[in-house]
Amino acid sequence: MYKNVLNQRMIALFLLFSSCFLAVTGRAQSIESNSPQFLANAAVKSGNNQGSTDNQQIVTSKAAEPDTSWHPQRRLWGYAFGDAYYDAHSPALTSTLGKENNYYQTPTYRNAFQFRRIYLGYDYDINPKFRAEVLLASEPNENTTPTSATSSVVGGDNLADGRMAFYIKNFNLRVREVWAGTDFVIGEMSTPGFSLNEPGTNAPTTLSEVTWSYRSVERTLSDFHRNNAYDVGAALQGTFDPKTKNFGYVFMVGDNTTSSLTTVYNPNSTLSAINPNPNTGFFKIFYGDLWAKFLNQHLYVDLYADYLKTSSTQASTAIADGTLGPQAHNMFKVFAAYTTPSFTFGVEAYTQNFTNGVTDNTTKEAAKATVNAISLWLRGTVVKNKWSYFARFDSYNPDTKFIAADNYTVNTNYTSYDPTVKEQFYTAGLDYTPVKNIHVEPNVWLTRYKDQYDAATKGYLPDDHTLVYRMTFFYVFGK
């Protein structure tokens, strides 16, 4: 019954997006058929039924002036950032603390040069209505452990021999103005979670990542804890007021696969990278976002939510009744920032629920885990176009209902999720810009870890931290 209902819903979504596409192509054909060139051609073709004087007039009439108002954007662009860094302290190499950060299992006192991101993109305006985008990315982790039968690189794009690799991060087609103020996008694209930024379209340009402006230093709060930055799917990106673009929305349906493929599951083998969760491709993630600009565009407000069912009921020997109920996760997030020419202050906070996301091994019951997190940051100008500063603090609690004396197993497949460890993140630094699009950013990077288990509970890890001193470089070309 559930699958029939789900299939009906997916068919309805497919028909909705198909109708948008057909409406656009029909409108484009209608515009073309009413153009001066089209009408002139039609008149010539029908001239055999008219007098010679009419034909003479058509032949000698002045040709329509070409439309010079549209200038296609076809550009190769890219950017890169990385560091010369010194790791003053990290947890032991055998520790599981800090699985989500760049320096996970990096040895203390290591010093090196590292690229943390390299982008290579191409934007191509096919015509005023259609636009294509492709983006290749390499985002290596400083942990360069090669992939093997017993180990794998965590959160990076390193090859088995430790070299960097590109993958396809965005590859999509945008249809502009399916109706006034709304674009339709299909393919692999940025989600509205934090990173979507498409100037010159109806997409938002004031979400948390672009407003924070220092992705070269660190990801935003929800990105750091692995909310989807990109996904394969379809989206409507629009504004409620197309002329001023102060209010808008994004609605997206995706596979929740990011750049991975929906591989066929073999029930006779254990779950692994080549034999993933059997539910992959059956459930869809829904993203929604409302954004606004107030006070003459000095105050930005963004409300974001997502929802995904990740699995149906499964048999489980860890549960007292032998059954693990359906799993799902959803996020509610608010971002607000006040910006002036001299400074910008921002707040990002979210709560996230994992239905049946963990199993309490003490009670043998599945439990819902609830995440609470908040980020506060400030950036500003010291010398215009030359020197700037930034500072930020994050607090992250992975499970507000955690019982310190109990023992837990993670059920959710949400990347790197660990309900046991609270984190606090700090960074501060300067930004020197010798010329436009080139930045040198000395900064301090610190994350503190606090285990929620009682000290006497099996699996407890003492408080620890990762402290890194960095000289970050960041440059952009083609934009």
UniProtKB/TrEMBL annotation:
<protein>
    <recommendedName>
        <fullName>Beta-barrel porin-2, OmpL-like. bbp2</fullName>
    </recommendedName>
</protein>
<keyword id="KW-0732">Signal</keyword>
<feature type="signal peptide">
    <location>
        <begin position="1"/>
        <end position="23"/>
    </location>
</feature>
<feature type="compositionally biased region" description="Polar residues">
    <location>
        <begin position="46"/>
        <end position="60"/>
    </location>
</feature>
<feature type="region of interest" description="Disordered">
    <location>
        <begin position="45"/>
        <end position="67"/>
    </location>
</feature>
